[in-house]
Write a structure and sequence with these properties.
heterodimer, A: mainly alpha, 13 helices, B: alpha+beta, seven-stranded mixed sheet, six-stranded mixed sheet, globular
């Protein structure tokens, strides 16, 4: 178990490292530099002064030098300051990261609370009208873009009914973005749960349980649901990381002050320290979630522990 | 079955709980003004950023030596008057008495000196240091008098001192940790309460504020208790917020403006004298735009008024000058007499003469356009107009960062198909033309020794009439040679939707919203 987890941890660290290199190379491949963007569209400083500013920020150095000096500072816990406004990058990220995590967790909770029973129910009623209705709704849920769903929810619940705030922070403001992100993921969870449960229902041990005369509910709850949950745990881990990505769109619609919006702005402004910081934190979060899942998976399935 | 019911019950219970929680808590009705914008400021330190979003907020917290009148001309503010030495090297400002910083300390000449010295700090100068001009020394003559010494004349200093880039910082800021992030001591109408990055800036009114020159009728402190500037990136969300009353002022989605105006649901205010200039420019170092006739043909082919009416209605207007309304030297009639006007027949004739091009044998070029603000659709109208005279323009949409790099790259590339772009610049002084067109040029585009000489004069002539003559000569040169073909003004972030109960909101020149008079 220990060697298994150490291997996974080492792979996780390598992933984070690779992500920072990839992003540094990619972002420098995009045309435009932050100093030029900062001064464009208004009375610029002279080209010589722009060069001076680039030198001060170290942007005149080759990418490889810029990357390693960034890495060097990083090992001292310094993520640098933004090119625009000279604000500490770590502070900017730390203010927003909890918001994105809260949104993704809440959405995940909604997805599980709706998707799991719906999928389970559809599996239990396989082939019936109920099954068809749940699965049709699920296809609809998967197909609806976040952008459209978010605006529709906002029009219904905020503008027409006046129940919820349009945007901003706070617990009430979390409901609409979490619903937007959660509902489409609930559809995915429902579909995966249904197929997982059907697989388990066809297993010999379930037939045996039925043959022993156990009540249907006991068979479904104790035997089918529990066995079917193991692959679902892995799937939900992946879903969570997708949600971190999906949160970027939803954050924008509902003005939810998350890390995704920070990243979008930084990309448009080519604010390299922010982009690098974002990727580092984002990749680390994903790696940590996957690592935790590996632990859960190992605990659930003894075969993995032994391998 | 039991299990299924249990799941269903739990799900239904949760849903009901959520709705009940939502219904029981009605949003508190604050009497503060809520102004929603698409993005956040970069910093509260006016010497460390350049974005309009930041400038607008600094103008609320800090005050400036000068202010602008409705036409965009500089007028007294913290400085009740100023003298310029005949050689244009010494500017003496006489400050008004009794101005207080937000921490209660008096604002005097020492604060002005602190501000300018900080901008010229060798280790970490202001990002707009160049715009202060060649200031070599700042002398505090007495608490109410301060003198700037320049190493060479620089007339763009005066309009700069009316802009928030030159916000006067109280010298008590230097002892404060977190200046620019958590603290910002100024003397403007609003005091910083808090800034939650990416979310909102909370300001409260400055009860000691006295208006010495800003474009507000209210002579004293703002009428409202507070001003919340919140970040709402999605235009439809801002509109929803305006409709529910959670937001009082915001930029609406441009597509919804006609319906909003027609319904009277919200008032729509367009900023005037923004200094924003949207124009055609060309990759002039290679064919076909190295030929003046082809550039002129583009100018003749473009029917700006029709395109604007189609896309923006009456929200934006054609601009004839390379510097827009509100900027010193702007003169519509003068510029119109030099700019090639809409004349498709003339455009066809010029294209035929230049390369035998025409509707049957079109000239293919690329047209670079900045994304957003419905510019894509405006570009399509221009594309159709160009097609009529025999120019096949391939529209390429891109973010402004990419476009800046691409325009320079196009100017530095000697081969390839022709390239023109719909560029957008803004500044409060004709000095913008120096930045754009003086060698080597902001994008390495058109330059000439003749133009350089004229542009250099625009920086040093202290007599307004003489300066205006040279500025006009520069504009005539740019227009006669179709180097900078002005299209329209304003061009971005200039429309404000205001809830009907809000009175007194106005936008000063160069897109500075004023909240001093706001009541509701």
């Amino acid at each position: 178990m220990f060697s298994y987890l150490s291997r996974r941890l080492a792979m996780g660290l390598a992933t984070v490292f690779a992500a920072t290199i990839a992003v540094t190379l990619l972002i420098h491949a995009v045309p435009g530099d932050p100093v030029q963007i900062m001064y464009a569209q208004s009375q610029g400083t002279t080209p010589e002064q722009l060069e001076e500013i680039r030198q001060r920020l170290g942007l005149d150095q080759p990418i490889i030098v810029q990357y390693f000096s960034y890495l060097g500072r990083l090992f001292h816990g310094d993520m640098g300051v933004t090119i625009r406004g000279e604000q500490p990058v770590l502070d900017l990220i730390l203010v927003r990261l909890p918001n994105t995590l809260l949104l993704a967790f809440s959405a995940m909770l909604i997805a599980i609370l709706i998707g799991l029973p719906a999928g389970f129910w559809a599996a239990a009623k396989r082939g019936s009208w109920t099954d068809a209705a749940v699965m049709t709704a699920a296809i609809g849920g998967v197909s609806i873009p976040h952008f459209w769903l978010g605006l529709m929810l906002m029009i219904w619940f905020s503008v027409d009914l006046g129940w919820l705030p349009v945007a901003g922070g706070g617990p009430l403001s979390l409901i609409l973005p979490a619903m937007t992100l959660g509902l489409s993921n609930a559809a995915i969870v429902a579909r995966m749960t249904r197929s997982g449960m059907i697989d388990v229902m066809e297993q010999d041990f379930v037939r045996t349980a039925h043959a022993k005369g156990l009540p249907k509910a006991v068979v479904e709850y104790r035997h089918v649901l529990r066995s079917g949950l193991i692959p679902l745990v892995t799937m939900m881990g992946l879903q969570f990381t997708y949600m971190m990505g999906g949160a970027i769109v939803v954050e924008n619609i509902f003005a939810w002050n998350g890390i995704g919006r920070l990243a979008i702005d930084a990309i448009f402004q080519r604010d390299y320290p922010v982009i690098q910081g974002f990727i580092l934190v984002f990749a680390t979060t994903v790696v940590v979630v996957m690592f935790l899942l590996d632990i859960v998976y190992a605990l659930l399935d003894p075969r993995i522990r032994r391998s | 079955m039991k299990t299924e019911r249990r799941f269903l019950k739990f799900g239904a219970g949760l849903a009901l709980g959520l709705v009940a929680a939502a219904a029981s808590l009605t949003p508190a009705l604050a009497k503060d003004i809520v102004w929603a914008r698409y993005g956040d400021i970069d910093t509260l330190d006016p010497q460390k950023a350049t974005s309009t979003l930041s400038l607008q907020v600094w103008s609320l917290i800090y005050d400036t030596l000068l202010a602008t009148d409705a036409s965009g001309a500089p007028v007294p503010n913290l400085a009740k008057s100023w003298d310029v030495s005949p050689d244009g090297l010494k500017y003496t400002f006489h400050l008004v008495d009794g101005v207080k910083c937000h921490d209660g300390s008096p604002l005097d000449a020492n604060d002005v000196k602190y501000t300018v010295d900080r901008a010229f700090n060798k280790d970490n100068p202001s990002v707009t240091q160049a715009s202060w001009g060649p200031i070599s020394n700042v002398e505090v003559i007495d608490p109410q008098t301060v003198r700037f010494d320049l190493s060479s004349p620089f007339v763009a200093l005066i309009p700069f001192l009316a802009d928030s880039f030159s916000s006067i910082l109280c010298d008590s800021n230097k002892d404060k940790a977190g200046f620019g992030t958590t603290t910002a001591i100024g003397s403007g109408p609003w005091i910083l309460d808090s800034w939650t990055k990416g979310d909102k800036i909370v300001l409260k009114k400055n009860p000691d504020y006295v208006n010495h020159g800003k474009l507000a009728q209210n002579p004293g402190a703002p009428y409202m208790d507070g001003l919340i500037i919140s970040v709402v990136p999605e235009p439809q969300t801002r509109l929803a917020g305006l409709k529910t009353g959670a937001i009082q002022i915001a930029e609406p989605p441009l597509d919804d403006v006609p319906a909003l105006k027609a319904s009277g649901e919200l008032n729509v205010i367009s900023a005037e004298n923004t200094g924003q200039n949207v124009f055609w420019e060309f990759a002039v170092h290679r064919p076909p735009f190295n030929d003046e006739r082809v550039r002129e043909a583009v100018a003749h082919a473009t029917d700006v008024q029709t395109a604007l009416t189609l896309i923006y209605g009456d929200l934006s207007i054609p601009e004839q000058c390379p510097i827009s309304r509100g900027v010193f030297g702007n003169d519509q009639d003068f510029c119109a007499s030099h700019r090639a006007q809409y004349d498709p027949e003339e455009a066809k004739a010029l294209l035929k003469e230049a390369g035998g091009w025409g509707p049957d044998n079109p000239l293919e070029i690329n047209m670079l356009v900045w994304t957003g603000g419905k510019r894509d659709r405006l570009a399509e109208v221009f594309q159709a107009q160009l097609a009529e005279v025999g120019i096949k323009a391939n529209i390429q949409m891109m973010d402004i960062g990419t476009m800046n790099a691409r325009v320079r790259q196009e100017n530095e590339t000697p081969t390839g198909i022709g390239s023109m772009d719909m560029m957008t610049w803004s500044w409060y002084d004709p000095d913008i033309l120096y930045a754009l067109w003086h060698s080597p040029g902001a994008y390495r585009g058109y330059t000439s020794p003749e133009l350089d000489a004229m542009l250099e004069k625009t920086r040093v002539l202290t007599d307004p009439a003489e300066r205006k003559a040279v500025v006009q000569a520069v504009m005539a040169y740019l227009l006669d040679h179709s180097i900078h073909v002005p299209l329209y003004t304003p061009g971005w972030e200039w429309v404000f939707a205001v809830r009907p109960e809000v009175q007194g909101f106005k936008v000063a020149p160069f897109v500075y919203p004023i909240f001093n008079d706001v009541k509701f």
